[in-house]
Amino acid sequence: MAKLIAIINVIAWAGFWAFGYIAITSDDLTDSQLVVAAILAFAGLVTGILAYMKLVRSSEASGYAKGSNQLNAEARNKAQEEWGK
Fold first, then answer.
1. Treating both helix axes as pointing N-terminal to C-terminal, what angle do 2-25 and 31-62 enclose, rounded to 10 degrees?
2. Full-prediction pTM beyond 0.70?
3. Contact 48, 13 (CB under 8 A)
4. What is the pLDDT of residue 85?
5. Given a cut of 70, is residue 43 above it in pLDDT?
6. DSSP class of residue 67?
7. How far apart are CA 18 and CA 16, in angstroms?
8. Taking the alpha carbons of 15, 20, 26, 32 in that order, is the dihedral positive or negative?
9. CA contacts within 13 A on the Cβ side of 75
């Protein structure tokens, strides 16, 4: 499953950069073509971010990547109580 998400991630980012470049640099596009290129670039951006976040979560859950250094709820509450003192 992670390989499929990684492939989706690569394709989404490639679409973002390709259609974003077309939307920004092309002088010969009609308004409707420009809107379509911008929508496809935005779809690639959103899909790429979501796929990347899913890959990060799955790699941390599987132990492949080191987890983030976030505090657990108990330590966070203790730190917040001591902060105002």
1. 150
2. yes
3. yes
4. 66
5. yes
6. P
7. 6
8. positive
9. 4
